Amino acid sequence: MAEAQQAVLEVRGLKVEFPGRRGVATALSDVSLSIRPGEILGVVGESGAGKSMTGLAIQGLLERPGHIAEGEIWLADRRIDNLGDRDMEKIRGREIGAIFQDPLTSLNPLFTVGAQLTETIRQHLGMGRAEARARAISLLKDVGIPSPEERFGQYPHQFSGGMRQRVVIALALAASPKLIIADEPTTALDVSIQAQITSLLRRLCKEKGTAVMLVTHDMGVIAETADRVAVLYAGRLIEIGPVDQVLRAPKHPYTRGLMASIPALGARVERLNQIDGSMPRLDAIPPGCAFNPRCKEAGPRCMRERPGLLPAGAGASACWLNAGGTA
Ligand SMILES: Nc1ncnc2c1ncn2[C@@H]1O[C@H](COP(=O)(O)OP(=O)(O)OP(=O)(O)O)[C@@H](O)[C@H]1O
Ligand code: SF4
Ligand SMILES: [Mg+2]
How high is the pLDDT of residue 179? Predict the structure, then answer.
């Protein structure tokens, strides 16, 4: 498969489990997706659907006792789901950059932004002090921070929220990673600044050929930024496809409900939670299709058999009704 060979990230049949006192909770089940160089994959779904969990599993950051129980994660031609902590530490920052909702998660308040950027650059790229400083200043300029030479010597608290998230983007890009995982990168920012940050992220990743997994609740951000979209539901990937198809002609009944609940494309919504009923808890996922209690199109097969991803238009959808099938 030519597409699979080119992918920066390839996740195959990922299953994440959390053993607990009341049994094992399956947080992700059979999640498969890939992202090519320079491509932005938007990841959407209700709260608790498994969006952050997918990003954490890829970065080797699952909170114990959570672990990958099945599946494989490939970064270009290297399998990374079975690496030890030390190898994963090297990959984080160097090959996978991270941007989280709160810029302060990624920044240390005790060090100047210049020191943090140079530290990351030196650690991962083995540059000398002067060269790392020059690269740091050029990165600050790339992310649109005015007077980068002066800003280099300032502390995170001296930056506004939007400027701080720009610094985090610079930090994520510092070692020219192949992949960036951005989990709700603009949710904590003023609405007026959100679009600037997402278009900056898009421009930089297109220029540098970085693959991006962009987790967001905001369909406006998806419409403006993503090339393809993955929809998660109860820890399962239920639809994936080109952004136009998923937003305008979704193939899965859940995605259709999700899109219908949004007043107008481009409008910004806080939570995507307006379909009748609620997503099942991880320990109460029904047999068959996880969406069956809420699905108006459910038939007997949906109660018994779990649908896998099937080709649907230019993408894929996990529903028995695909390709003229019956539920
Ligand atoms: N440490 C943990 N132990 C057990 N279950 C967990 C743990 N952390 C998260 N979960 C469960 O895993 C599921 C997926 O959570 P995740 O954080 O990925 O959701 P999300 O899609 O990112 O939601 P949100 O939009 O609220 O950020 C949730 O049901 C959550 O309760
Ligand atoms: S498989 Fe059945 S229950 Fe699930 S979305 Fe399709 S029609 Fe609805
Ligand atoms: Mg999350």
Answer: 98
The CB of 327 under 6 Å from ligand 2? The reply is yes
Q: Quick one: average pLDDT of 119-143?
A: 96
pLDDT confidence bin for 269, thresholds 50/70/90: low
- Ligand 3 center to 47 CA (angstroms): 7
Cα 132 to ligand 3 centre (Å): 33
Ligand 2 pocket member 307 (CB < 6 A): yes
* Pairing state between β 236-242 and 315-317: antiparallel
Rounded to the nearest whole angstrom, what is the distance from the C-alpha of residue 71 to the centroid of ligand 3? 21
Nearest ligand to the CA atom of 183: 3
Higher pLDDT, residue 190 or 30: 30
Nearest Cα to 145, choosing from 301, 46, 128, 136?
A: 136
Buried b (16+ CB within 10 A) or exposed e, 268-294: eeeebeebeeebbebeebeebbbbbbb
pLDDT of residue 268: 56
Rg of the chain taking only CA atoms, in angstroms: 20
Rounded (10°) angle between helices 113-125 and 85-94: 120
Ligand nearest to the CA of 46: 1
Segment 223-232, tens digit of pLDDT: 999 999 999 9
